[in-house]
């Protein structure tokens, strides 16, 4: 059975490819579900959806763990911890009362975006050509929603101005953009420290995205000699092999 499962996860057959892309579609669906339901109050139908997602994630995690030859290395990957937290957040409240707050932690499932991006990069030419843009978008998106979850978890019972996830998201965005309307203010020492963290790192990630979109540091052009893909915008020689390269350049500074 292990070899059959290994073939599905690591094989090159059409069945294995279909299986892996089905899992990829499920990961994307999970990310959409996590973001969408974070703005919805808890309801009975959400419990059944949570159980379904949690059971599938658990089965996938157990299968990968069974095939993993090096668990120490696996525990260093963000996707591993994202799966562990996701299983706890989806299934934990079912077995132990009072663990509903774990719903907030499922935003860490967004860390799975990096694994998803890696898969698409290896198979889809469009993603390879726009890798920097997609990575910058994912970095900013993951940061925003993970920080929103942390702010909600730390403020919802201590701050009357933050009563739901939407309030926490609004505070995160106003803090990140340094708009600071003042209608919602984080309370307590940890709340203020989170605000500072959001401002410093959030603005950095936002500027990184703007840089990639409007003025990239590097351009993608494959060196005909060594294959290096990233070069300075006005480069005439490859930094790796020194060969002359001919990058289309508009002369703008």
TrEMBL record:
A GO term from the CC aspect: membrane
Pfam families registered for this protein in UniProt: Ion_trans_2
Protein name as catalogued: Voltage-gated potassium channel
Gene Ontology molecular function terms on file: potassium channel activity
Membrane topology: Multi-pass membrane protein
Keyword annotations from UniProtKB, A to Z: Ion channel, Ion transport, Membrane, Potassium, Potassium channel, Potassium transport, Transmembrane, Transmembrane helix, Transport
Residue span, Potassium channel domain: 143-214
Cell compartments where the protein resides: Membrane
UniProt cross-references to SUPFAM superfamilies, sorted A to Z: Voltage-gated potassium channels
Transmembrane segments: 21-39, 84-105, 133-153, 192-214
InterPro entries, A to Z: K_chnl_dom (IPR013099), K_chnl_Slo-like (IPR047871), Volt_channel_dom_sf (IPR027359)
Keyword Membrane: yes
């Amino acid at each position: 059975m292990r070899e059959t499962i290994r073939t599905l996860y690591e094989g090159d057959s059409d069945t294995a490819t279909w299986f892996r892309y089905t899992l990829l579609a499920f990961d994307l669906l999970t990310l959409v579900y996590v973001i969408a339901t974070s703005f919805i109050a808890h309801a009975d139908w959400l419990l059944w959806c949570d159980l379904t997602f949690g059971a599938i994630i658990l089965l996938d995690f157990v299968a990968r763990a069974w095939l993993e030859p090096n668990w120490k290395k696996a525990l260093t990957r963000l996707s591993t911890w994202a799966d562990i937290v996701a299983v706890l957040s989806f299934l934990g409240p079912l077995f132990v009362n009072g663990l509903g707050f774990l719903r907030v932690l499922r935003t860490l499932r967004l860390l799975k975006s990096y694994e998803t991006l890696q898969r698409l990069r290896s198979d889809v030419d469009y993603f390879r050509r726009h890798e920097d843009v997609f990575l910058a978008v994912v970095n900013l998106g993951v940061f925003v929603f993970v920080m929103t979850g942390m702010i909600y978890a730390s403020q919802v019972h201590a701050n009357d101005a933050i009563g739901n996830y939407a309030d926490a998201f609004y505070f995160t965005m106003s803090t990140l953009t340094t708009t600071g309307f003042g209608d919602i203010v984080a309370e307590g020492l940890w709340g203020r420290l989170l605000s500072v963290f959001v401002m410093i790192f959030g603005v950095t990630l936002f500027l990184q995205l703007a840089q990639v979109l409007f003025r990239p540091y590097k351009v993608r052009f494959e060196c005909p000699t060594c294959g290096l893909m990233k070069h300075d915008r006005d480069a005439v020689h490859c930094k790796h092999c020194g060969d002359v390269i001919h990058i289309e350049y508009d002369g703008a500074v």
